[in-house]
Design goal:
Length: about 130
């Protein structure tokens, strides 16, 4: 069983990911604007808000990786505020859920890509 505390590996990975947060966010946005039909139909309407949300999400993720702890209350509140904002705007839930899945996929791919760069991390080091 692993502890929830940060390890040298997770701290190292977080340091490697941190300067890439803007680039990862931009990759997420491009994928979302391409793959979510509602966003693709009106990129000028959605791109700014989607980028802002992706930046927040990536920063929260890096902080979680760095600390080795689950999301803090402030992180959860950020996500709640985003959900409320989307609901108040009358946006349907499915495009947001689709975008979240895409963002998670892109974030996962970029995290794995970074973990494989030298000095590469063994897969079992990524499990915690």
């Amino acid at each position: 069983m692993t502890s929830s505390a940060a390890t040298p590996v997770t701290s190292s990975l977080a340091r490697r990911l941190s300067p890439k947060t803007s680039g990862i966010s931009e990759l997420m946005v491009r994928a979302m604007l391409r793959e979510v039909p509602r966003y693709a139909a009106s990129p000028e309407r959605y791109a700014g808000a989607v980028l802002q949300r992706c930046r927040l999400a990536v920063r929260i993720f890096v902080r979680i990786v760095e600390s080795g702890e689950p999301p803090a209350a402030r992180d959860i509140n950020v996500v709640r505020r985003i959900g409320r904002t989307v609901a108040i705007a009358g946006e349907p839930l499915e495009p947001l859920l689709h975008a979240l899945r895409i963002g998670a996929r892109v974030g996962w791919e970029e995290t794995l890509r970074e973990s494989r760069r030298e000095p590469a991390l063994a897969p079992e080091q990524m499990l915690p």
